[in-house]
Amino acid sequence: MTFVPYAGFDPIFWLHHMNVDRLFAIFQAICPNTYVVPQNGEDVNTPLTPFRRNNAGAIYTSVTARGTRPFGYSYPEVVDWGFTAAQVTRNTRARVRSLYCSSSSTASNAGAERRDVEGYTVSNALKAGGSPAGKYREWYINLQVDKNELGTGFFVHFFLGNFADNPQTWSFDATLVGTHGVFTPNNTVEAPTAIVYAQIPLTRKLIDSFNRGSIANLELAAVGPYLRQNLAWRVQKYDDRGVPTAQLSTLKIYIVDAEVTPGSGPDDLPTYGTYTPHADITRGKQGGWNDDRPPGQ
Q1: Model-level pTM?
Q2: What phi, psi does 172 have (nearest 5°)?
Q3: Number of other residues whose CB lies within 10 A of the CB of residue 222
Q4: Are the CB atoms for 15 and 81 separated by under 8 Å?
Q5: What is the pLDDT of residues 204-226, one digit of tens each?
Q6: Which residue among 137, 189, 205, 280 is least enclosed by CB atoms within 10 Å?
Q7: pLDDT, tens digit, for every residue of 244-275?
């Protein structure tokens, strides 16, 4: 999907957009009172030109296109016929939990191996450290960058540990944490600045590190120094060429964490606490958070 003029000819394009539609339908079922936020003079009644909903020429709006039912389809996770709105919400939450959580065990049984909602083994890492009983910490990489700065699309790869120098191997390196792809048409160097934001989950790799004995727990006192020493990132264009991070002057990366309470019932999802930024972990590195002001201000 890198090249816009050809993207629609690749089946993965359609699979991707169908899954986005599915995820949004699930989100709507779980959060039925959250929808389009008016901005820039547009709201739920703004015509979605040129998409017509009848032979008379009426144009769809975000109101008339809000659900999948008017289009004659649904998804297995969202059965919305024969149930009240509250039942649909509960059923969808339970389905999501069954899909992405292999056990209904809670963090209070920290001695037993189990998986959280993202599907990775958490084992004793949940309680090791200072988190209150039944809670643990999730960690993320936050980044922001001007998507037009390089004049073409590019990747930002994140690694936790040593990795090869060859850019062609970065996407498959064993220490790869995750990758953010910046979708930009070619020849956009002169385009206006357009800052994009992304978040990469870190907890899976940190739990791998915990299970290897590299960190004592998931708390800041253990994770902070470990990330300062081992977290690295590289920039790569879509043609596989590596780009010195210094050439991406708008790149800003920092770490955040949040305390999580896993769901306990069959239709309970995790509850996330306030996200806390840790700019000092990446400060001083090329592409790290080197502003005087804290992230988010």
Answers
A1: 0.81
A2: -120, 5
A3: 19
A4: no
A5: 899 889 888 999 888 999 999 99
A6: 189
A7: 999 999 999 999 999 988 888 888 888 899 99
